Structure to design on (1031 residues):
């Protein structure tokens, strides 16, 4: 186990190194000169040269890469070109906001999706199952920005129940006004909920047909026990893999949803940094998102390993 | 605590004692019909039988005859699409009309089941102890320590090693035999009154099968339950059953006490099944001939007709058999029920002469087709404790160690050994599916590359493989016909129409009619798929066919058909075979030479007639004596191998077989690798053992005579 963890952590470090390299490389080849960007089009060549000097832009790229990575390791993500603030400070609050939104989706929607999936699988072809299947089909076929806009039109513009934009007063966090979370969370949940629900349902149906479930039934166990001790643990194994795969999706969805609802999270910041060509910020955010993805994957794998004795004791 | 004290009075006495004379189980005129999207399946057609307390009813027949359906119906466990006619009375009460709650109380407690394929019958994510304890909890209200202790005593009673600790294991950590013991313990947990065993030893190694049968034979005396023992293997039935019911196409066609049935079958089908079973090994060893029942089981998709359902395969068929159904019960001369118009005509000539195996005489100067020298196949690599450093935490599996053999053109090498002994590995290495670790392989004198992809096209088409699992060799999306036609055209360069003709012939030669050309593999039963896989291998006209357990899943009757066909084809086309099987009956018929593997090592090799006669290596001896004997009076042999082939991560210090060898000499065997001894009577016959061959031979002959004096009473026919 310790060995497994060590291996995986090592792997994460390697992954992040590769990603940092890629991120650095991409921003490097993007057109446009950073110094000109900062000073505006009318800047004199002398001024540009001074800024270049100050930012170390004339150093060879390996040196710039090394100093950037070195900074990241020390917790210094650099300085935003636009706002002239340390990125570490800027990102902190935004990251919390995003995590609140994502956790809401992940820890509320996933369990519900799994529960509905189990119910639908056990009551296959019942009215409720068909209903759930129908809804999930609709949810899967609609991209987030469509669901988001539809929800805004219905609940905000028409009914006026919920705010259409999720702006947060500076110095507060979204939890002080939880109603602003509802629409973004619902939007974010849609597709993932449907995927996880359908996957759970399919796995439950498959496991119900195995010989060991037949044995459990023929042992005379109450149905409740057959479902919870024999069907669910085995059906959860592949479901967890799907949830893992969906973490990436969730992060992607987050970016879209934050922008649709003007929610002040990492995703919105990412878009802004692209629009304003704030390269250091963009690099830092990309790296941060990759790290989040890698770490949550590790957790999902740990859960899978814990549930599956074949791997646990191998 | 004694076992009896676990059973609270409430559990037992709440059940009203059945009226005198009511049998434990009475199945009356049972019909089971499945309505599936692909049509109606008549799995059971008007079957009746009874089981009394304390007796074992053997239920035997080819696969698809409805045996398992009968067993599951007895637990009222059938899919919703099934229609059940007739009644199943357990102590006089009809299970089919019983309320769900009462049924649940019976299941697992008074009626319990043991399944084929124990690996899949156990929940993979749950410790086996818990799986037994939950039965105890549900039916007897035991939990915690009491349940754990009771589970341990159950594990002990089914002969599991280390009963107090084995409950902490997960199913995949146990061998197949141990898994089946757990399932049996689970079934015995509440001391059931009726025990249903559906092919409990099918798919296990012969050695394991023998130990499980010992357990069943012992249970029979220990528990006062009625047992229904389902098997397609008459040798197995002979060992455990008191009475036998023979099923064919959903009907019971003969029922008799076991001795009566084996001594004088009265239905041609029973006689046929009996003649398909290999006779026990005697001093001559070989089994030069084989009988078969042509055709296949009357399909369950066919309607009930007013005729004998066996008519199409029956050698005694008369006009009347096709015009009316033989009466439900027409007692034969001895008075036991049989469903045939002419039971008195059944005798040893019913099935005519057995088919002798055509053998190619051995030529001493012919170059071998395949020559294998020093084959090593290791799986995986060294793993260190700290990823790159430290002591090795895991070594590669040494699946084949220094294996040598040769196959001459047109001859068959039989490879035997328990599962895990390295048979399939050898096959996969030769076929190039696995890149060998070391060793030299020559085909027709040309070196054969390790990977199949590196072999020239000509060489590739000379070697074909047929797998244990037929699905592995067939493309699930293509109709069978197009697979065959394609491969025939490729190897012979002929037109489509002509190739189609040959394909139909090939299918017919494996017992399937031309109608199968347009079917897809998944529409066929396992046995049919395997026959198609063989036909597909033949289609390419190879020089060597590697068959890995290719007939193991087939019924004896069909197996015999396929083996006869293989032998015949071999004589005509001169194809060589590398035939891997754990079934010694098959090996004794099909082999010209035999290679016995254990723990990845060759422990015996030589011409079949020499290998099958004493001296045997102690391992070969154990394998041979584990094979079930189709004779109810046969004394079970004494040699039993417990456990399984060890994992092969460490080289053996001494003899590979030392850990399980009944003849182990102690220190010498455990710590010194034995020599490969050469039989003076035939130098090609070699045995890996410390014991001199003369000594082995003398011992083994004496043991065999001792046994036959008690056992092999001359049979009536
Ligand atoms: N659930 C089912 N649905 C449809 N057909 C079935 C089902 N179970 C068994 N059958 C069919 O019933 C027939 C008898 O099968 P089975 O009872 O398993 O025979 P056996 O145990 O003798 O091999 C076969 O044709 C089989 O395919
Ligand atoms: S009734 Fe006729 S066809 Fe049927 S088994 Fe008897 S002899 Fe054969
Ligand atoms: S060498 Fe010893 S352990 Fe090995 S087979 Fe011979 S007697 Fe048995
Ligand atoms: Mg069966």
């Amino acid at each position: 186990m310790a060995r497994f963890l060590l291996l995986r952590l090592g792997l994460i470090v390697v992954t992040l190194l590769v990603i940092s390299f890629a991120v650095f490389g991409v921003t490097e080849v993007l057109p446009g000169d950073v110094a000109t960007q900062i000073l505006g089009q009318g800047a004199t060549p002398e001024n540009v040269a001074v800024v270049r000097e100050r930012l170390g832009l004339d150093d060879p790229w390996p040196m710039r890469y090394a100093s950037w990575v070195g900074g990241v390791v020390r917790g210094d993500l650099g300085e935003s070109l636009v706002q002239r603030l340390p990125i570490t400070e800027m990102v902190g609050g935004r990251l919390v906001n995003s995590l609140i939104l994502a956790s809401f989706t992940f820890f509320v929607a996933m369990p519900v999706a799994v529960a509905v999936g189990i119910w639908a699988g056990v009551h296959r072809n019942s009215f409720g199952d068909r209903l759930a299947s129908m809804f999930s089909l609709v949810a899967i076929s609609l991209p987030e920005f469509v669901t988001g806009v539809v929800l805004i039109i219905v609940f905000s513009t028409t009914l006026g129940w919920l705010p259409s934009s999720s702006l947060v007063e500076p110095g507060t966090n979204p939890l002080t006004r939880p109603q602003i979370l509802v629409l973004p969370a619902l939007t974010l949940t849609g597709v993932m909920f449907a995927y996880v629900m359908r996957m759970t349902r399919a796995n439950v149906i498959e496991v119900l047909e195995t010989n060991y479930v037949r044995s459990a039934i023929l042992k005379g166990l109450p149905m409740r026990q057959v479902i919870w001790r024999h069907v669910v643990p085995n059906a959860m194994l592949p479901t967890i893999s799907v949830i893992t795969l969906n973490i990436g999706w969730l992060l992607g969805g987050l970016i879209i949803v934050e922008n649709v609802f003007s929610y002040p999270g990492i995703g919105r910041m990412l878009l802004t940094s692209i629009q304003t060509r704030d390269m250091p910020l963009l690099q830092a955010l990309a790296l941060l998102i990759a790290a989040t993805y890698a770490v949550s994957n590790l957790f999902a794998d740990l859960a899978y390993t814990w549930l599956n004795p074949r791997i646990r004791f191998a | 605590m004694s076992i009896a004290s676990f059973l609270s009075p409430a559990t037992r006495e709440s059940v009203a004692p059945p009226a005198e004379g009511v049998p434990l189980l009475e199945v009356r005129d049972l019909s089971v019909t499945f309505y599936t999207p692909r049509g109606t399946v008549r799995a059971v057609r008007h079957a009746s039988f009874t089981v009394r307390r304390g007796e074992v009813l053997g239920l035997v027949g080819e696969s698809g005859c409805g045996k398992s359906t009968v067993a599951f119906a007895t637990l009222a466990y059938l899919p919703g699409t099934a229609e059940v006619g007739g009644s199943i009375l357990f102590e006089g009460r009809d299970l089919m009309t019983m309320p769900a709650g009462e049924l649940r109380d019976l299941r697992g407690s008074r009626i319990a089941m043991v399944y084929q394929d124990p690996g899949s019958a156990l929940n993979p994510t749950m410790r086996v102890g818990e799986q037994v304890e939950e039965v105890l909890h549900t039916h007897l209200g035991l939990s915690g320590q009491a349940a754990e202790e009771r589970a341990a005593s159950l594990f002990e009673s089914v002969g599991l090693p280390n009963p107090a600790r084995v409950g902490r294991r997960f199913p995949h950590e146990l061998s197949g035999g141990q898994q089946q013991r757990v399932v049996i313990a689970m079934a015995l947990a509440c001391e059931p009154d009726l025990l249903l065993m559906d092919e409990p030893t099918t798919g296990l190694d012969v050695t394991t099968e023998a130990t499980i049968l010992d357990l069943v034979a012992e249970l029979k005396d220990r528990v006062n339950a009625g047992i229904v023992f389902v098997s397609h293997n008459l040798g197995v039935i002979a060992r455990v059953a008191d009475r036998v019911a023979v099923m064919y196409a959903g009907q019971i066609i003969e029922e008799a006490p076991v001795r009566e049935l084996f001594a004088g079958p009265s239905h041609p089908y029973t006689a046929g099944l009996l003649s398909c079973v290999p006779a026990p090994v005697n001093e001559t060893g070989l089994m030069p001939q084989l009988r078969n029942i042509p055709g296949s089981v009357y399909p369950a998709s066919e309607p009930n007709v007013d005729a004998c359902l066996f008519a199409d395969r029956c050698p005694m068929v008369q006009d009347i058999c096709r015009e009316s159904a033989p009466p439900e019960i027409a007692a034969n001369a001895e008075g036991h029920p049989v469903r045939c118009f002419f039971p008195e005509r059944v005798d040893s000539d019913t099935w005519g002469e057995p088919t002798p195996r055509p053998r190619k005489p051995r030529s001493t100067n012919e170059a071998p087709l395949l020559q294998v020298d020093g084959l090593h196949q290791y799986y995986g690599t060294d793993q260190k404790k700290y990823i790159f450093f430290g002591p090795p935490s895991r070594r590669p599996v040494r699946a084949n160690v220094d294996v040598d053999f040769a196959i001459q053109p047109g001859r068959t090498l039989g490879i035997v050994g328990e599962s895990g002994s390295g048979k399939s590995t050898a096959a996969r290495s030769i076929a190039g599916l696995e890149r060998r670790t070391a060793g030299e392989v020559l085909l027709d004198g040309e070196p054969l590359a390790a990977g199949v992809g590196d072999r020239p096209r000509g060489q590739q088409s000379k070697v074909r493989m047929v797998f244990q699992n037929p699905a592995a060799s067939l493309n699930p999306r293509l109709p069978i016909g197009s697979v065959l036609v394609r491969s025939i055209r490729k190897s012979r360069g002929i037109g489509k129409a002509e190739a189609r003709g040959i394909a139909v012939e090939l299918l017919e030669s494996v017992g399937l009619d031309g109608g199968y050309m347009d079917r897809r593999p998944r529409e066929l039963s396992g046995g049919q798929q395997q026959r198609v896989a063989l036909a597909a291998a033949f289609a390419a006209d190879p020089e060597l066919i590697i068959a890995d357990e290719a007939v193991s899943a087939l019924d004896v009757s069909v197996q015999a058909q396929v083996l006869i066909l293989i032998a015949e084809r071999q004589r005509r086309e001169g194809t060589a075979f590398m035939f891997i099987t754990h079934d010694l009956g098959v090996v004794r018929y099909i082999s010209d030479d035999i290679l016995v593997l254990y723990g990845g090592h060759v422990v015996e090799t030589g011409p079949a007639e020499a290998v099958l006669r004493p001296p045997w290596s102690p391992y070969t001896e154990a394998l041979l004596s584990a094979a079930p004997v189709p004779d109810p009076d046969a004394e079970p042999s004494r040699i039993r191998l417990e456990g399984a082939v060890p994992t092969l991560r460490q080289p053996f210090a001494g003899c590979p077989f030392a850990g399980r060898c009944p003849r182990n000499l102690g220190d010498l065997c455990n710590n010194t690798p034995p020599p490969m001894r050469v039989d003076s009577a035939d130098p090609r016959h070699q045995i890996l053992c410390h014991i001199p061959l003369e000594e082995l031979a003398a011992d083994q002959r004496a043991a065999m005579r001792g046994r036959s004096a008690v056992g092999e009473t001359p049979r009536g026919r």
In short: The pocket of iron/sulfur cluster (ligand 3) is lined by residues B 617-618, 655, 657-658, 661, 663-665, 669, 674, 689-691 (CB under 6 Å). Residues 81 and 319 of chain B are 37 Å apart (CA to CA). The mean pLDDT of chain B is 85.
